[in-house]
């Protein structure tokens, strides 16, 4: 089966994780308890089935953990983890050769998309690559976070390709790689750990490696 489209995670995939951690320091210092409990409830949400709006569910869980009203929990969450974080994102820069690679993939005929667990908003604009994607989705919009298959299937629908025609690129083995493969996609793992890729067809550390795999190397046409 030939790969027709490539999907990308954002945080830690299109730019280095350390930049994300540095940019999140102001939010952490402003409300460390919120950051701590938010991390806990996000892990919980990944493991449960629910039928609520995701933001409402997060506010409800935060409310119980922090002993505050759901309204107050949502207000603090929206300000420190969404609005404030987006502002700090303006200082972040992508990995070397990201734009070069995306341009090459587009010229080679691949459709490109983004699937992130957090709202995209202006992130791609700040990274200087907004013009290169056919679609940009947040897992939150589906009500389910990665590695649930629903966000990946929504990405496939937006990319107008079957899951088996998509290569998904991510930095989290558990959420990105296993989630994509479980949804029927191929996967490429950006990692500096070295060694094999496990369920990923490719483990790479630079974007030029990814470009070579898909365009210049054996990955030009991938067979199931």
Q: Helix and strand layout, with pairings?
A:
Elements: E1 5-8, H1 17-30, H2 32-45, H3 54-66, H4 70-88, H5 98-107, E2 111-116, H6 123-127, E3 135-138, H7 139-142, H8 149-159, E4 166-170, H9 173-182, E5 186-190, E6 202-204, H10 207-216
Parallel strand pairs: 1-2, 1-4, 2-3, 4-5, 5-6
What does this protein look like?
The protein has 224 residues and is of the alpha/beta class. The chain folds into 2 domains: 5-16 and 95-220, 3-Layer(aba) Sandwich (Rossmann fold); 19-89, no CATH class. It is 49% helix and 12% strand. It has helices at 17-30, 32-45, 54-66, 70-88, 98-107, 123-127, 139-142, 149-159, 173-182, 207-216; strands spanning 5-8, 111-116, 135-138, 166-170, 186-190, 202-204. The protein has a 6-stranded parallel sheet with strand order 3-2-1-4-5-6, with helices on both faces. Strand 4, helix 9 (173-182) and strand 5 (186-190) form a beta-alpha-beta unit. The longest helix has 19 residues, at 70-88. The radius of gyration is 18 Å and the shape is globular. Residues 218-224 have low confidence and may be disordered.
